[in-house]
Amino acid sequence: MTVKTGIIYSSIDGQTLEICKKLRDEFLENNQNVELFSINDFNEDVTSYDRLIIGASIRYGVHNKKIIDFINTNKEQLNSIKTAFFSVNLVARKPEKNTPSTNPYVIKFFKTIDWTPNIVEVFAGKLDYKKYPFFDRIMIQFIMWMTKGPTNVNTEIEYTNWDKVTEFGTQLRNL
Ligand SMILES: Cc1cc2nc3c(=O)[nH]c(=O)nc-3n(C[C@H](O)[C@H](O)[C@H](O)COP(=O)(O)O)c2cc1C
């Protein structure tokens, strides 16, 4: 019987989606069945999957409410299959905040939700000031200034460690 994997993402500027696409491609390269969905389009039965991976980015300190609602609504079903969760945020660019037990958003997330996936991971995202509308740009500049990051509006840095994504993919395929 073939193992069926679903990947659900919440991504505003596309970085979480990029990570999910890389994971999907690795499943495909390993001849494994995989489907990728935005949280906005996922209407399937959770239990029709053997493995479900949920990836969400942080905006102003929180993951998308739709992801939280989805997990709360499908808690029992999620507990009956293999699951993984990962968060994408900029605080994770700091080595001392880039593991599930040291990243403040991941720690807080699992304090507020009654779900324990088999694997949890966190990835640093992308900083690209020119993509942000005026208000967001000012806010991110402020957050970056507070956390000693780049504040120049021309900055475009991808902090994502793709080797870590690949390692995560290997773990997922062995789940
Ligand atoms: C409006 C806005 C708010 C953000 N808030 C935070 C935040 O509170 N903490 C953080 O670490 N990163 C924050 N980020 C950074 C994003 O998490 C990061 O850019 C990530 O790569 C976005 O992923 P996405 O493209 O999949 O949405 C924010 C980014 C934007 C544009």
List ligands, each type once. Answer: flavin mononucleotide
Rg for CA atoms: 16 Å
Q: In what range is the share of β-strand residues?
A: 25-35%
Envelope shape: globular
Number of strands: 8
Largest sheet: 6 strands, mixed
Q: For this entry, what is the oligomeric state of its chains?
A: single chain
Mean pLDDT: 96
Proportion of residues in helical segments: 25-40%
Indicate the low-confidence ranges by residue numbers.
none
Order of helices and strands: EHEEEHHEHEEHEH
First CA to last CA: what distance?
16 Å
Structural class: alpha/beta
The DSSP helix count reads 6
Could you explain the architecture of this structure?
The chain is an alpha/beta fold and 175 residues long. 36% of the residues lie in helices and 25% in strands. The protein has helices at 15-29, 65-73, 75-79, 104-112, 134-146, 162-173; strands at residues 4-10, 33-38, 51-59, 62-63, 82-89, 119-124, 126-128, 156-158. Strands 1, 2, 3, 4, 5 and 6 form a six-stranded mixed β-sheet that branches. Strands 7-8 form a two-stranded antiparallel sheet. Helix 1 packs across helix 6. The longest helix has 15 residues, at 15-29. The protein is globular and about 55 Å long. The structure holds flavin mononucleotide (FMN).
